[in-house]
Amino acid sequence: MPAMRAAVLVVATFLSCGPLTPARDAGSGGGLATGGGTATGGGSATGGGVTGGGTATGGGTATGGGSTGGGTATGGGSAAGGGEFGFSFGAFGITGVTATNSPIVGIGATTMEVWAAQADGSLFRSVNEGPFQLISKFPQQGTVDLFVGGHLIAFVNTRTIWFCRANMFNCSVVGSWEQFDLRSPNDHFGATLCGTATDVYMVGSDTSDNAVKYHFDGTTWQYEGTLPLKTPQRCWLSPQGDLKASGTGGIVEGLAGGVATFSAITTQSTIFRGGTSTDAGDAWAVGDLGLIARRQSGPAWSSGTGPGSNSLHAIDGPSGSELWALGSASNDLSGFVWNGQQWAAQRAPMVGFGASSVVHTIFVRSPNEVFFGGQSLSGPVIVRASR
C-alpha cells in the first residue's frame, strides 16, 4: 500500500460515511483508446434533434474562483451569479496537488463527503463543502474513473482497481484501501466504473481492445466475460436499470442481465466517450468532433453534431430537459446545453474553466447540485453548480 506523503493533511478523526450516494457520473472513462476517428456523424437526431441553435436558458455564468496548481492550491467557495438552468457556479480549492497537468477524471459523494480522483493517481476528499484535500497519491498513474455508492468507494487505473469498503474501514486512511490486479490472470486494462448501491461494475478491455466486464460481489471483483464493444470509455446505469457502455462506433446495452447487444451509431471509428440516461427514458452518448447521439423509445439510435466541433467527454444533468455535453474548450466554451428541445452553445465559459481547458466528468449529486471535473491551464479543476 502507498505511504502517505509528508505534505498531506492527516485527518485525525473519521466521519462516518453512512449510506453512500449512488454515483451518477458521466465522463471520459479512459481506457487505452487513442482519439480515433474523423467521423462527424451526420444527420439530425430524431425526436428533438441534436442540431440547432438557440440560446441556453438562464443567465450568464458566474465569474471568479478557480483552482491553482502546485501542492497548496487555494480558492473556492460559491461564485455569485446565475448560469444555465438557474445554477450558480463556484470552483473548489484543491490542496496537495502535485501534478498541475493532470485532470480530475471522476467525482462521487457520500452523504457528508465528496471524493475526486485525479489522473496521476491522487485521491482527494471534501468534507462539509470544504476544500478538497489530498488523501494520498496512489502508485500506478493512469486513473480513469471513480465510483462512490452503497458502502464502496473505488477508482480504477489502467491496471488496478483500488477500493475501500466504507462500512468496515476508515477510507481516509490509506491502509484501508485494497487493490485488485487486472494484469493477472487475464491481462486486462481498466476503463470505467458504474452501478448502484448493491451492484458495481468495471468495464475495461483486453489486449485486443475488446470490452470486458467485472462485477463487485461485496468482497472482491469477479470477471464476467467479454462484451461486443471496442475501446470502452464510459459505463452508466439507466433509471430503468439497464447497464450501458460507450466505445468505438456505438453503445453496448443490456449488461446487467440478459444478452448484451451492440447498437452501432456510426459506421466509422468515432469514439463515444460519455453517456447518460434520463428519467424520461432517453439515452444519450457524446464523442469526438461534437458528435451527439440519442435513443428515445425503441432500439434505434440517431446521431448528429451539436452547435460546434468540440471533442465531447461527458454528458449529464439533473433532468431530461437540463443536460450539459462538455469536453475540450473551443473559444473558451467547453460544450453545449440541452433545454429539452434543442442544443445550444454555452452562453459563457464555466467558472474555473477557460481557454485550452477540458471537462472530463460530470457528477449529479441531486437535482440541485452538480459537480464538474477536469483540467484548466493552471491545473486540475472541480466546479460545483447549485441552485
SS summary, helix count: 0
In the CATH hierarchy, what is the architecture at level 2? 7 Propeller
The ordered H/E elements are EEEEEEEEEEEEEEEEEEEEEEEEEEEEEE
| Derived structural class | mainly beta
Shape verdict: globular
| Counted beta strands | 30
CATH topology: Methylamine Dehydrogenase, Chain H
CATH top level class name: Mainly Beta
Largest sheet: 5 strands, antiparallel
Rg calculated over all Cα atoms: 19 Å
> How would you name the CATH homologous superfamily?
YVTN repeat-like/Quinoprotein amine dehydrogenase
Instruction: Give the terminus-to-terminus CA distance.
Output: 40 Å
Strand order of the largest sheet: 1-28-29-30-2
Strand content: 35-45%
Tally of individual domains: 1
Mean pLDDT: 81
Could you list the spans in which at least 5 consecutive residues all have pLDDT below 50?
Answer: 1-23, 27-81
Helix content: under 10%
Keyphrases for this structure?
387 residues, mainly beta, Methylamine Dehydrogenase, Chain H, 5-stranded antiparallel beta sheet, 5-stranded mixed beta sheet, 0% helix, globular, disordered N terminus
Can you walk through the features of this model?
This protein is mainly β. It has one domain (25-386): YVTN repeat-like/Quinoprotein amine dehydrogenase (Methylamine Dehydrogenase, Chain H), CATH 2.130.10.10. The protein is built from no helices and 30 strands. The protein has strands at 25-27, 88-91, 94-95, 104-109, 113-118, 122-127, 132-137, 145-149, 152-156, 160-165, 178-181, 189-195, 200-205, 210-216, 221-230, 234-237, 243-246, 250-253, 261-264, 272-277, 283-287, 291-295, 302-305, 312-319, 322-330, 333-338, 343-345, 358-366, 369-376, 379-386. The termini are far apart. Mean pLDDT is 81; it is low at 1-23 and 27-81.
